[in-house]
Amino acid sequence: MNLAEYYKLQPLNIADIMQIFTLQKVKQEEIIDGKFDLESVSPDPTTDIVIITYKNERYLNGNLSNLDFYFSEPLNVLAVGVPQQLNNEQVIIQRIDLNVNSVVGFTLVKKDLPFIIIYSDKGTKILSMSDLNPPKPVVKNKKRSVKKRKRKSKKRAKKSSSKSQNKSKSVRKG
User: Where are the alpha helices (DSSP H) in 44-150?
Assistant: First the structure.
């Protein structure tokens, strides 16, 4: 049985630090297509995300580009850890208990945090700012000179311009 579940994203503000997005189910339908057709199923205009269930596999399809970080599947987030004080070797973390189901991702409101800890039913995940905002490689454009390089001419042996020579052997007298 192939199942497509359509969801809308619901934002949930957490202490002026971040905005977590949870899923609210809109509709569900059964699909009888091949596996390759299932991956191309996209959300309709009234929904944001579709989750396709095929055998024991789940595919999450939708536009999540407006989120700072998104998970590969919906998680049950138990708590969020935010660093309060950073000393040389000590970090004091504020734990905010949530217990929210079906979290897909989040956006940060407070952008100056060095990292965030997500406590979920699948384990703990520490997300650094480099995970959230991967550095973009700097590509240096090499300037190509407009001047054309002179071609070096190779010196070759001159062809003789004399009349064709007789290459037959002379008959020997004997």
Answer: 129-132
